[in-house]
Design goal:
With about 180 residues, this protein is an alpha+beta fold. It has four helices and twelve strands. β2 and β3 form a beta hairpin. The chain starts with 9 loop residues before the first strand and ends with a strand.
């Protein structure tokens, strides 16, 4: 395939969730990259939904993620805020619906008690510990956050901020323009 035949490749999202001492924080960087050019520095990829009781972070194609977010919110309404049920129902739809199946995004969804990662292949993943990350810099952010959880007394918000700074220093698709939400 010739280079000119390739579709542009948008990249650049790191989302990190940390739970500690009864609080949960979710941070997302603001970078959107098209091939090797930074197109946007302050994209907002982390949001509170359902009357501020749930935080969602998304990675992947933005339009796809926003479509999924809209469907997820309707599932939450239908199931009266039952996060686990809404997540499972969205994952079932995502996997079986012909149009939804083509969406390229990941959702990280948290409330005070639950962490979930949803993917288009029907995965619903709960982390083994109190840290979870997605996106191009997700592995860096998660490793940094896990070390900070184990070796410091920092709060969930402080760990998110510091781990995201570390990820921004390592991943060229991650910056330090953070959106951070906390429950």
């Amino acid at each position: 395939m010739k280079i000119k035949d390739r579709e542009p490749l948008f990249r650049g999202t790191t989302i990190l969730a940390v739970r500690r001492d009864g609080k949960v924080a979710v941070a997302g960087d603001g970078q959107v990259t098209l091939n090797n050019t930074v197109m946007k520095h302050r994209a907002r990829k982390v949001r509170k939904i359902y009357n501020g009781k749930i935080i969602v972070g998304f990675a992947g194609a933005t339009a796809d993620a926003l479509s999924l977010l809209e469907r997820f919110e309707s599932k939450l309404e239908k199931h009266q805020g039952n996060l686990t049920r809404a997540v499972v129902e969205l994952a079932k739809d995502w996997r079986t619906d012909k149009i939804l199946r083509r969406l390229e995004a990941l959702l990280l969804v948290v409330d005070r008690d639950n962490f979930f990662l949803l993917s288009g292949s029907g995965d619903v993943i709960e982390p083994d510990d109190e840290v979870m990350a997605i996106g191009s810099g997700g592995a860096y952010a998660q490793a940094a956050a896990q070390a900070l959880v184990q070796h410091t007394t920092m709060s969930a918000e402080e760990i998110c901020r510091e781990a995201m700074q570390i990820a921004a220093g390592l991943c060229i698709f991650t910056n330090n323009q953070l959106t951070l939400e906390e429950l």
